[in-house]
Amino acid sequence: MSRAARLAAVLLLVAAVSAASAVAAPRLHRTKLPPAPPLPTSLAVDEGEWQVVPSQRLVAAGPVTLRVYNRGEDEHDLTVVDGSGREQSVYLAPGTSGTLQVTLTPGPWKLYCSLFAGSPDSHEAQGMAAVIRAKRPPARRATAAR
């Protein structure tokens, strides 16, 4: 048997053994899903004429940090009415940014510009509002000791 024929026979044997072991090996299936990633506790909010654009629509319930950027040419503010009914706002001159710390209970929350509130020229009436949702993180199940 020539050297090339022996090499071909060895390679064929290795390929056959590899294929057989791949077929015979049990397939492992995931029996548990990985945990969901944590919900964000901060978000950026861009404001401009005439829009409010949050970076996230779903956040964790509890303390949340809003980093607000006025990308417009007019003055704006960002207002949220917190869970206790207290209005919280941050004023923003054109091209500036600010931070607002709020505590959100589960449910929908309106973010809006309150300038000229109650008038037909209110920034909210011109479209400067958005809704985010606060959600409780899923409860962790205790694992039984084995």
Would you give an account of this structure?
Strands 2-1-4-7 form a four-stranded mixed beta sheet, with no helix packed on it. A three-stranded mixed beta sheet has the order 3-9-8, with no helix packed on it. By secondary structure, it is an alpha/beta fold. The longest helix is centred in the first third of the chain and has 22 residues, at 3-24. The chain has one helix at 3-24; strands at 42-48, 51-54, 58-60, 62-70, 76-81, 87-92, 97-104, 107-112, 129-135. The radius of gyration is 29 Å and the shape is elongated. The termini are far apart. The protein has a domain at 42-135: Immunoglobulin-like, CATH 2.60.40.420. β5 and β6 form a beta hairpin.
